[in-house]
Specification:
Length: 440
């Protein structure tokens, strides 16, 4: 979330009109839903602990959560093994892979093609023949003389030295020549997984920035083969064959919703993008280009257009299907300030409009009595809190869910620019939470 050195009201009339409604909304929502201690989840709402766990560690995903969080929830709920565990924003497959590891069938959706590749690669049960082929390709690997030609725009040009980019595109040529679908997927994912170490830039919040000190990789071929070898070792150690279905696309569409109609969904665990203006396509754009998911900026915009309305970097729809008075008040109040992007209020309206559709669709596929856990974070703009956990809980009640608990997992940093005078409990409301819902 961006902050400004100064904050000022640019529409005093809107501010004066909306402020009393806003304060009442916060008070009523806070009184309506009990927030309980969730300190157990404090270290589990990020991806860090996964970097020591086989398969999960293959790629350092900046916007995921711990497999221990999923494991804890599954152990607590203990759904029958004939039920599927659903993640409608599966990312790199933490929920799906953990479910499989615990013997549960699972299904996932995501609109990020890089993430779908990661999930499919992690959850695939590699055959003996596929393992032998991987070993053969690793043992016989040498950097080809040919390379894949891509559009070298400013982003790519400024992110790699010429020799590093040359090596990456030669590895990509090697990957494209592999005929076995899942073996190629594994080698492509390994290529994606070394990009951060090879790049002049690092992921930082809502995009990329230059590394303060770039240390060249001494041997990219060795780095790559070591990565594949590590992945192969994990496959040999644990390669569970449990039914799973991973789909590219959004579960907000009727077409994808219908794919679940015959599946008994007994538990749902997910974390949607947060309402914080982060554009996940922007964050992972190097993986998109080097991995071969996009060939042009039109391709890039295609993926952005499918995303949840949680960012302002695309021409998202300003039409809203679900009227939400509370969200509209909050968005209108934010618009009375000198916000850095005029689309933020409609982004917030769009975010909760999209999430209402998602929650409604989840309610259609879960079996009665099943639980749904949502990992979310609240956000703030110019001191105006967006209480995402409370608003999503309120939406869920509309579609037959009972709010069992809202777990306060950890406090998140509030900007020094926040106007805490608007409420007494602002710091406590700036939190990352785990919402526990049950379908009545």
């Amino acid at each position: 979330m961006r902050t400004s050195e100064s904050k000022m009201i640019i529409n005093q009339e809107v501010f004066n009109n909306m402020l009393p409604y806003y304060q009442k909304i916060i008070e009523q929502l806070a009184a309506k839903y009990t927030v309980v201690d969730g300190s157990y989840y404090e270290g589990l709402v990020n991806f860090k602990t996964n970097m020591a766990v086989p398969k999960h560690k293959w790629y350092d995903y900046k916007h995921g959560y711990s497999e221990r969080l999923v494991r804890h929830i599954i152990e607590e709920e203990n759904p029958p093994k004939e039920y599927f565990i659903l993640d409608p924003f599966c990312g790199v497959g933490t929920t799906n892979l953990t479910s499989i590891d615990m013997g549960y069938k699972t299904v996932g959706f995501d609109i990020n093609p890089m993430a779908i590749l990661a999930t499919k690669t992690k959850t695939h049960c590699y055959s003996d023949d596929e393992i032998l082929l991987i070993e053969k390709l690793v043992n016989g690997f040498s950097l080809p003389s040919s390379k894949i030609e891509i559009e070298i725009g400013k982003v790519i040009q400024t992110s790699f030295t010429e020799d590093v980019l040359d090596s990456l595109l030669k590895i990509r040529f090697f990957v494209e020549c592999i005929e076995s679908e899942y073996v190629q997927a594994l080698f492509r994912f390994a290529l994606i997984s070394i990009i951060d170490k090879c790049s002049l830039k690092i992921k930082d919040g809502n995009g990329l920035k230059f590394k303060k000190s770039y240390v060249p990789v001494p041997d990219i071929v060795k780095l790559y083969i070591d990565k594949v070898s590590d992945m192969l070792s994990d496959i040999k150690r644990s390669n569970e064959n449990v039914e799973h279905r991973i789909f590219f696309g959004s579960m907000m569409t009727q077409e994808n919703l219908e794919k679940l109609q015959e599946l008994p969904i007994g538990l749902c665990v997910f974390s949607p993008p947060y309402a914080n203006c982060f554009d996940y396509c922007e964050v992972y754009k190097l993986e998109f280009w080097i991995g071969g998911f996009v060939k042009s900026y039109d391709d890039f915009e295609f993926y952005r257009s499918m995303a949840l309305r949680s960012h302002v970097n695309s021409k998202f729809s300003h039409k809203f299907e679900n009227t939400n008075h509370d969200v509209d008040v909050i968005a209108s109040l934010i618009s009375s300030f000198n916000i850095w992007n005029k689309n933020i209020p409609d982004m917030i309206r769009g975010y909760f409009d999209d999430m209402e559709l998602m929650i409604r669709n989840i309610s259609k596929v879960l079996i009665k009595g099943a639980k749904c856990y949502i990992v979310v974070a609240n956000s703030g703009y110019k001191g105006i809190l967006v209480p995402t956990d409370l608003l999503l809980s309120d939406i869920a009640v509309k579609y037959g869910f009972k709010v069992c608990n809202i777990y306060h997992a950890r406090k998140i940093r509030s900007s020094s620019q926040q106007m805490h005078i608007l409420m007494n409990d602002y710091d406590n409301l700036m939190r990352e939470s785990v919402i526990e819902l049950q379908l009545n």
